[in-house]
Structures are given as C-alpha cells and as structure tokens.
Amino acid sequence: MDDVDLRGSPQQGLVTATFGFFIGFAGVVLYGPIAPQFGDAMGLSGVLLGLLVAAPQLSGSLLRIPFGAWTDDVGAKLPFLILLVLSIIGMSGLAVILLWLYPDGLTYQQFPLVFLFGCLSGCGIAVFSIGSAQTSYWYPTDRQGTALAIYAGLGNSSPGVATLIVPVVITALGITQTYLLWLGLLVVGTLVFAYYAVDPYYFQLRKQGVDAETAKQRAETEGQELFPSGNAMESIRNAARIRRVWALVAMFFVSFGGFLALSVWLPSYWIELHGLNIRSAGVVTAITFVLAAALIRVPGGWISDTVGGEPTAIVSFGAIGCGSILLVWTRDLGTAMAATFLLAVGMGVANAAVFQLVPKYVPEAVGGASGLVGGLGAFGGFAVPPLLGLFVDIYGIDGYATGFVTYLVLGVGGMILASRLYRTVDQQPGTPAVS
Asked: What Pfam families does its record include (predicted)?
C-alpha cells in the first residue's frame, strides 16, 4: 500500500468533470443554428427537420444509462473519453460534408448520413451521468449538493453559450469555417480533459491492483465517503419495477426533454415566424431560454428543498402550460420572448424539483432511478422536435406557433402526475435536491 500513487483532489475532479460536461453537452445544439439552411439545402419536411435537429439527443439520452453504470466499474475518465472521441468522429464527418457537399451538393439523399453524424456528435451529451458519478465519489455527502449544483449548472449552460456564439461566428466566418473551429475546440478540449482528469481515489487504487476492500479503506483515509455498490445494473432493474419511477421519468421527459427540444427548435421558430436573422435568433434563444433555464435550476433546487418538490413541480408545470398558451396565440415578438422566458423558468425549476423527488420516493434504488429518470427523460429532446415539425407540415409557417399545443399538453400532463404524487405520498421534508 505504501507504493501506490494517488493523484488529484475533489476540486480537480469537479473542475475536470464540469469542463468535460461543458464541451460534450454543447452538442445539444449542433444543428439548431443552421437548421433552416440545412433544411432548405436538402428539401426537408418539418418532421425530418425536427428529426435532424434532435439527432444528437438520441444518442445523448440513451447512452446515459449504460455509460453511467459502467462508471461504477472502471471510474469516470475512460467512459468520458470514449464518448468525447465519438463526438469528435461525428463532428469530423459533419466537417467533411460541409467541406465537400455544402451547399450545392447537399441533397435529400445525404439526410441519413447527416443524421448519423449528428447522432455520433451527440454522444458527448451522455457524459452527464458519468460526471455526476465522478463528482459524487470525490465529495463528502455534506458537500455534494453544492458540488453537483455547480457541475450541473455550469455544464448545462454550454448549449446556451453555443447558441449565443455560433450564429455570430457564422456571420463572420461562414458555416463551414465555424464548424471546423467547433471541431478544433472539441479536439483541444478533449486533450485537455485527458491530461488533467483524474479518477477518484478508490478507482485509482483498483487500477493499481489493490483489492476492493483494501482500496475502500485507503480511499476512506483520504476523505472519500461514497463507493460503488457493485450492482449498478441491478439497481436499474429494481428501479424499473417501481411505478413511481415511471411517473418521475414522464415528468423529466416534459421538463428536461422539453428543454432540450426547444433548445434546438427555437432558432427556427424565431427565424421563420418572426423574421429574425440567424444571429438575432441565436441571441434571443440563448438569453430568453437556454441560459435562463440552466441558471434557474440551482435556485430551483433550493425552492424544492424549502417548499417541497411536489408543489414546486405543480407550479412549474403550470408555468410551462401558461407559456405554451401564449406562444400558440401570439405573433408579437416581445410577447413571444416573455412567454419563452416563462417556459424556461418552468422547465428549469421543474428539472430540480423532479430530482429532489427521486431519493424521496425511491430510497431503495436511488442510483438506478436517477439513471432511468435522467436517461429516458432526456429522450424527450429527440421525440418532441418531430412533433413540432409535423405542425409546420400541416399548417405552414403558422405551425411554428400552433405546435406549442404540444407543450400545453405536456405541461398539463406534468401537473397531473405531480398532483397525484402529492396526494398519494406522505411528505418527507428535508430531502436534499440533487440538481
């Protein structure tokens, strides 16, 4: 035991996890800023355009569960790097298409290839579950709330930053050069992560040949409190048998899945319905929605801890419904911006409220429930945009507004589920919110 080499600190673990999540999660908005241009070039219908902008969310949501479970076996660094490298492969494929085919050679026949590269680029989105586990293993239980809030809050802001910056760079450099620059930054960021990222002490000891029990004892002397249970997939299977878990999955499908969907759909909404240019659409999307929803999540956790997750969720889903009604009705830019901000607040606070309820309702399988809620709930980011595109196919330009009926239905559904939980389960105050 004296010859083992332990490196890193909780602060280094948090910084590298947040940095890796930030660069990977930006893939959420890969196609959002250029959706109208790609749609015109390939002659896509509204449904296919919705599928295209949602492509990164398909892999980004479904890979969360298996990679999060794998982290308990090998630590966070290797799964992190694999997902980031897959994102680099996807971005490289997109770069080749932009260099050789865009715009005149890009046709409907290339849609499957563009979709595939979007899915690969979205693999980095799935690092969320890995970084959450890494942060939890590095920090003692009495400091995890703050650490996880920093990790999720800063990491979740990257789509907003990308939505704000990418259209500006496109205006200055053009689409192809902008995405080549994005690829370069992703490669550099991955190399930086690979150099500085360090697994928690327990995993370092296991990789140096120390047996599990001895590694646990040594890691405890270094301050590590949480350790993998060794049955991550069993925890997921146990959670899947609990009905309350599926209610939470559905609620997170609305709040976080809905957030992901609008993050990529709103630029097209602002451009097509309100006549904004690509730069203005990016700024409005970032400020009134993406960044607002990401930053409100941390105080949303505090609100959930203070008044309870169920009433917080009920009010939040109500805000989503009210904002949706306004967006269906209005054609005024200012009103639409205010309604979009209302949606952002509702979704951001609801995200925190749902995760505050996970340990309360599923204490016997918190890890598995968190994986299912986070992974399957995020699938809404892939499922919702094609539905919004269907309204455009049916109603034309007005369909960009009418499509928010989808969010009205989802918001009401979320209110019903949260209300049922509130009525049927005894309150247990004091459960910390995990953002």
From this structure: MFS_1 (PF07690)
